[in-house]
Amino acid sequence: xxxxxxxxxxxxxxxxxxxxxxxxxxxxxxxxxxxxxxxxxxxxxxxxxxxxxxxxxxxxxxxxxxxxxxxxxxxxxxxxxxxxxxxxxxxxxxxxxxxxxxxxxxxxxxxxxxxxxxxxxxxxxxxxxxxxxxxxxxxxxxxxxxxxxxxxxxxxxxxxxxxxxxxxxxxxxxxxxxxxxxxxxxxxxxxxxxxxxxxxxxxxxxxxxxxxxxxxxxxxxxxxxxxxxxxxxxxxxxxxxxxxxxxxxxxxxxxxxxxxxxxxxxxxxxxxxxxxxxxxxxxxxxxxxxxxxxxxxxxxxxxxxxxxxxxxxxxxxxxxxxxxxxxxxxxxxxxxxxxxxxxxxxxxxxxxxxxxxxxxxxxxx
Length: 365
Fold this sequence. Notes:
Layout lengths: L4 E8 L3 H15 L2 E6 L3 H7 L5 H8 L3 E6 L3 H9 L7 H10 L4 E6 L13 H4 L4 E6 L9 E4 L5 E4 L5 H19 L7 E6 L5 H14 L6 E6 H10 L6 E4 L1 H12 L9 E5 L6 E5 L16 H14 L3 H16 L2 E2 L11 E2 L2 H12 L1
Parallel strand pairs: 1-2, 1-3, 3-12, 5-10, 8-9, 8-10, 13-14
Antiparallel strand pairs: 4-5, 4-11, 6-7, 11-12
Helix pairs in contact: 1-11, 1-13, 7-8, 9-10, 11-12, 12-13
């Protein structure tokens, strides 16, 4: 009898419960899992007064992997607008990353052949794109000191700080990933380090440290690029990138921009990994989409692909991961599309969450 793996499920808010429920059906088709459900984000604020409770953190630490849907919504945004000290759903996501030491976020960007036409960019510009964004997750401006001062007119501030060890460890993740991706490929491994070293002191330390780490990887080509130029190059020549490594804020923005190369945020998975021995966190890049929650039209494919990353990177189940990825590709090749992917062409057919999930399950069978 095969081993049952323990997964904590954090469905979250908005479309989170819908896409996670669909993904659990797919996971159950490829292996046996023991799920433990907990609250995070806005729903946890409603129930517990906090976006992330201590018992959820302990449950995650005791698991082998964590599968998350999405957090946030206008209900809680309005509460923060009324009271700046009100808890925010996003604190749950930031908190779980910090608690589990998940300092590296991996976001692959590889448009499915069937969705090349769904991208707002020309086919000849994005065909062949296969890149990986490695984003530092637990440092930078999201975790620095912040606040407001009652001076003339009022001042708000947010501190962006990085230490050499923080930069070193995320850089090593990027260089190791580049080496792995180069196996069996004609092109050698390449890392693009993104910063704003012409303006920010934290970026100057970033660039200096990356250069030192690169000395341990003489086989990996390294180049440095300013973040504003990177944003432009991602849409003008995306096929030139291999692995992009950058700090928290820049990585957040660039990975969402890169998602549009795939045609939709609904197609981009992610994996957050960190200290050895701690479970990883796997989630779709898109938000909670409260405007379509409960309508049955949410795209579950990014969550399914995130589950595949969970199998591959978190549970050492590469074969099962490949099955899910192949099933998703086959469904897209058949022309089935959720509304976010539907272009109206004759070879496409619009479908909701349930039908798309059923099609993936059928492919797995």
